[in-house]
What does this fold into?
Amino acid sequence: MRRVRVRPAPGPLAGALGLPGDKSIAHRAVLLGALATGTQRIRGLPQGADVRASLAAVAALGARVEPDADWTLVHGAGRRFGAVGPEVIDCANSGTTMRLLAGMLAGGSRTVVLDGDASLRRRPMERVAAPLRALGARVETTAGRPPIRIHPGTLRGIDWTLPVASAQVKSAILLAGLGAAGETVVREPHPTRDHTERMLVAMGVPVERRDGAVAVRGGTELHAIDLTLPGDPSSAAFFAVAAAIVPGSRVVLRDVCVNPTRDGFVRILRRMGAAIEYRNARDVGGEPCADVCAAAGVLVGTSIDAAEVPAAVDELPVLAIAAACAAGETQVRGASELRVKESDRLEALAQLRVLGVDVTVVPDGLVVRGTGGGPLGSGAVSARGDHRIAMAFAVAALRAPDGIEIDDAGAVDVSFPGFFDRLSVLGAQVEVLA
It folds into this structure.
């Protein structure tokens, strides 16, 4: 599937959907399972290309992976992880795989090269290489980008302040710290997703949380666990916005992770006027989880500042669609991280102009002047190899009477292979063109 045309549903969106397991937690379940003793059993593992990259990488580096009915089993290699396998590991399009593996391999016994596809090779890696060097690792990047070459090194704990809030970099430092002498502390300017910390605790690693910081001590062994993954909130956000912008809609998203470091999009949508509530709150695999009920509302513009970005960074593309359908102006600031994702998402979202939306791109964000609830124009846009851009414009098409044509729509398979099928379940008309 390369090109699709999405047209609006004939009426309000209605229904209940299940979602893929959370991608961020899935990566960590696979990668930490490879470092553990015993067998990590994971239920609900999503089938997107990014998670498959982590599975292939740990299998190449000494862990054994096998399916077992509803579970995926990762037989951990423990301290032997990374001691065997090819020199070059292909991380495909997955920045999470590359950055977390860099931390895991920083104190290893042999040289390993982490590489990826053309998109991943454009993404910045000095932000993870610099703290790993401070720990004592020998790390070489390619002009600051992949491939990354990691040589054997003896690690000692550090106290590191992140210049830019990043859960991936935080996690890489913590995982390297497990193999370092003494304590490793990571300080962050704004809270980022804490799935690594939660999972480390569940697997037997003491984690100390302080004001704006998290710390681990080296030498603690990880023990494999059974883990059920909650639904991915980043996937849920597309359908929540879809319900919010189509009059009369009401959609229920089942078993969604509502970790407060991940549900920033809910707080922003509520502020804009969407009706969103949590039901059946419970704990799933050590993470807060609930059914997310989203309904249409009269949306108004808002301001999203740097402190809010980490808890909504992956959802900002679809929040821009909500802004396009709102009354008034929405400003997004402190989001320069969007320029170094699978695409430059700020420039990709400027394609809203094709739909008649007034958009200004600034160095660290966007200014979107919404239609005030009026329809969007139709036209053709490109996903630019980016799964979240493809899904965001598919949601925009629900307010474009003549539909929107999306090139490179197959990019959705990175995180959500069944996305267009679920959109059809809710009533949207999806036509595969090529």
